[in-house]
């Protein structure tokens, strides 16, 4: 194969991959689908109804990851400042943390399994430790209050989070795939459409890279439309 042919086939491969890889931003729920999902939570038997609603709201509006929800404690709620603080570290040795620790130790030569377990739980990256305002709507604020009245921490494991989301999606009879990470993407898209700027959006979602926030903002088209209208309707 000539240099040119190999370059063009690499490009073709990359292009094909870009077209066929599924990203969670493609599974974003519309506002209507999200409302249907929330409504359907109440069809589940108690206490699964409340747990499902809590998960859908903190994932689908505040952008929490599944692992963050399953490790959440009410100490993370700052009621005066109305902030949900995702910490750098929350001591834990649940099955999920142990499995993640084994993986981390396998990928890193100077990290022993014991040390990796000790550092658990921690969020995905350093930038994932963040403060999330929860007074965006009364609905959210009330849901967090009710959660704190019932629980000190999320009462189930990481896999239960997936199950609750699946149960709610089935009850809502939603087409397409609904899973915790697509709810996180739904939160991003929701704020991008509302016109939240790249830097605060990045901080809210805890990304180390600004480009991810810019991608969601570009897809939403809100910033583009606002800028063009401002330029043309002076
Ligand atoms: Zn854990």
UniProtKB/TrEMBL annotation:
Domain Tyr recombinase: 24-233
PROSITE patterns: TYR_RECOMBINASE
Keywords: DNA recombination
This protein's record includes keyword Cell membrane: no
Electron transport among keywords: no
One GO process term, biological-process aspect: DNA recombination
Pfam families (alphabetical): Phage_integrase
Superkingdom of this protein's organism: Archaea
Gene Ontology MF terms: DNA binding
InterPro entries per the UniProt record, alphabetical: DNA_brk_join_enz (IPR011010), Integrase-like_cat_sf (IPR013762), Integrase_catalytic (IPR002104)
Protein's UniProt name: Site-specific integrase
Species in which this protein is naturally found: Natrarchaeobius chitinivorans
Organism phylogeny: Archaea, Methanobacteriati, Methanobacteriota, Stenosarchaea group, Halobacteria
